[in-house]
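User: Once you have settled down, look closely at the record that follows, taking as long as you need, and be ready to discuss the fold:
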Amino acid sequence: MREIKRLEYRTFLKYNSEVTIENVKVKLAREHKIKKLAPTDFQRETTTVWSFPNRGDWATHKGNYRGNWSPYIPRNILLRYSEKGDLVLDQMMGSGTTLVECKLLGRNAIGVDINPDAIMVARNRLDFPYKPLDEEYREPEIKTYVGDARNLNLIKSETIDLIATHPPYAGIISYTKNRVEGDLSSLNVSDFTSEMIKVAEESFRVLKPDKHLAILIGDTRKHKHYIPINVRVLEAVLETGFILREDIIKQQWRMKSTRERWRGKYNFLLIAHEHLYVFRKPGKGEKTTKFKHSIKWW
């Protein structure tokens, strides 16, 4: 892990107006023009089915970084599983959606990504003034690192209050086009599954006991048949000793494959959902026998 601080980001911004993620050019704003700093009429989700037809456009949130999750997701996770002043980790942060929500909601945060260009996008979206009238709000400390989710060597064990992350779905979207060694988005499903076990082990190490890991994962098809990547990730996380707390079905809207690849005739169902798994690390000395149906069963 190597920390990317504000000075390095500002120097990068001085000479670069955009970065390329996958095959898309993502512009970096010199100054953000923000119309609103919070969602309108927001209500916390109360069921295991979440659907956000309007993905969310408050603060600096944008949908031009392919595959980034709707800010409604980390907002719900943060409000349900953390408190102000807690330390939140997103070790596959992409464009920094989780970190922006941490800034708005008063959570300290660590963001990690293996792609240095992603760090610059995230720092750019964090680069806005925010001083709410809330007397309980304290400016959070938010740090960003180039690093590998499988080796969080600068994060001490049992120091994180919540992990909220959105990994790539194996090689469905190749974020770096093999330009960055170790990029999980360049792997096939089998190799991706093996590496996600390492991600889960590091998550278990850095997370405090009795705290939560939330991870959004989707599936794919090959030769017109379904490949349940989510099941492989579920098993990888349970393998490390986590307890499954929630399985939330998140509906997808305006998928790229639906708009472009699968126009016309096809003889299979279009995938329109993802799984948002919420896991809990057992407390110190906690007996998990009563959770035998929510832990590793094989």
Summary: The chain has one domain: 2-37+49-291. Residues 48 and 248 are 4 Å apart (CA to CA). The radius of gyration is 19 Å. The chain has a mean pLDDT of 91.
